[in-house]
Amino acid sequence: MSASRPGLRGDCVSLLESFAQTFGVLSPAGTISVIIPLLIISAGNGTWLLLLVTLGVFLVVMLSIVRFATLHSSAGSLAAFSELGWGPVGGLVGGWIYLLGMSYCVPAAALTAASYFDMLLVPWLGPSVTPVRVATLTALVMLACGMAAHRGIKLSTNLMLVIECASVSVMLLLIIAGMHHADAWTDHAQFDLRGVHFTGLQGGLVLAFMLMAGFEGATSLGEEAQDAKNTIPCAIFRSMLPLALLYLIMTYCIVALENRGVIHGEPNGLTVPFDDVARAIGRAWLGPVSSFGVALSYFGCALGSLTIASRVLFSMARDGRFWPRFGEAHPRNATPHRAIALISLVSTAIPVIMLLLRAPLGFSINFISQLGSIGLIGAYLIVVVALPRYLKGQGLLKRSDLLTAAVASALLVLVLILSVYPAPPAPYVYVVYVFIASALAGVAISLLLAAGGSPGGATLVRIFNGHVDR
User: What is the pLDDT of residues 293-344, one digit of tens each?
Assistant: First the structure.
């Protein structure tokens, strides 16, 4: 990196802060309060089994990504891994797929956070009669995310860690009190899989993928983490395994309390299961506290996703796949400030425009979330197939690597197929087409830079010719 092009601050992110980055993107408080209740509606007493299957998929995918992370580290994250295995063309396509997948997660999380903040305002301001209030709150959430991300990576990671620890602690206290109040520790309906059907499990599989989507978030800190090739894999392991256990326990408890009639099965608008628990134990005031924690958790998810997406865009711009000015870091904060500003602007515009066009809130959140999900599934698939190709070229390929890649690829292909077949009802059937169109637009930008002879384009041409030193 030349002196004229400021870079990211190296060797400044500790193991705890790398852990916080992954923890923040996974948004455990939001997942427990929103994703898991929605899964329960689909899978019922078999939700714990669905979680075991999903977590198994992620475990295998994690092994592939961690293997890459022990051998290579950069701000490019999965985009860089794609190029290592597939070469320049695969790296270009994989980079845009991952960048867009993570970028769509930003507005989805920001809109969800804004909707919970709006719900908390109802006792004072009344229900929203127009979409303007939620749109304004979404813009404010994105403004706060952009400012925190611009200020510095250490501020962002520490903020995410505090938010999630506080929110999850409140939820654990509520769930323990609720289980004790209802004497629901033993729930035979779940052990017997009472009323469970395959269609319900199949219907929840794609949604269950959002449980751990973004677990690789720490890989985007490859140029900033201390001893990155050891710190980042350790951060991924230390976040995924405890969260997997937490999700299984919380799922069992929520279903048990629903079977006892403490939690209502069908959500009315936003899911608020801990409001029901708080009322049941005579501590109704804790319900809004938990909802505030959910709002903050999704704020942390938006911030974490913005942190990842901006660094991937920064890396791609530095390698000539986007306008070169986006490949420069802030001279004082050492953050990819231009990439942060661009993604923040787009992430504000997408949900605000949808709301102002009178798209329903629930539809807006689901549609944008599915765009992110499709992108991450595709990116994971590209990387796990790239792993054995890269290892073979380095003379490091083992049978266990081939087995891991084969199993992970098969499982991801299955999830991808189930996300589009049977075809979902309109307008969700258009999710795949919207994502493909946006990915093609991104690739076209990179190719136009190459054809236009800009400095970034010249770099891209050299990349395709294999003459750029990595």
Answer: 999 999 999 999 999 999 999 999 988 889 989 998 888 888 999 999 999 9
Establish if 209 belongs to a structural domain: yes
> What is the C-alpha separation between 199 and 43, in angstroms, rounded?
8
In angstroms, the CA 356 to CA 140 distance is 16
Distance CA 223, CA 240 (A): 22
Q: What is the 3-state secondary structure (H, E, C) of 54-114?
A: HHHHHHHHHHHHHHHHCCCCCCCCHHHHHHHHHHHHHHHHHHHHHHHHHHHHHHHHHHHHH
Domain that holds residue 443: 15-464
Distance CA 63, CA 105 (A): 23
Split into its structural domains, the chain has a count of 1
Beta-bridge partners for 13: 225
pLDDT tens per residue across span 107-137: 999 999 999 999 999 989 888 878 999 999 9
Among candidate residues 295, 275, 269, 327, the one with its CA nearest the CA of residue 140? 295
Closest CA to 329 of 342, 346, 315, 319: 315
**201: CB partners within 8 A, 6+ apart:** 42, 43, 46, 49, 50, 53
User: Would 2 be classed as within a structural domain?
Assistant: no
Spacing of C-alpha 401 from chain mean position: 25
Q: Is 13 in a helix, a strand, or coil?
A: strand
Instruction: Decide if 121 is inside a domain.
Output: yes
C-alpha distances in Å from residue 38, one per residue of 299, 328, 332, 364: 20, 41, 44, 16
Check: CB of residue 58 under 8 Å from CB of residue 202: no
Q: In the structure encoding, which two tokens stand for residue 450, read together?
A: 């190459």
Residue 85 to residue 49: CA distance in whole angstroms: 34
Question: If we measure between CA atoms, which residue out of 337, 315, 335 comes closest to residue 327?
Answer: 315
How many CB atoms are closer than 10 A to CB 268? 7
46 secondary structure, DSSP code: G
Question: Which residue type sits at 41?
Answer: I
Is residue 426 packed enough to be buried (19+ CB in 10 Å), middle (13-18) or exposed (0-12)?
Answer: exposed
Instruction: Flag whether 5 is in a domain.
Output: no
Record the pTM. Answer: 0.89
- For residues 304 and 124, the answer to whether their CB atoms sit within 8 Å is no
Q: Tell me which DSSP letter residue 12 carries.
A: -
CATH number for the domain harbouring residue 101 = 1.20.1740.10
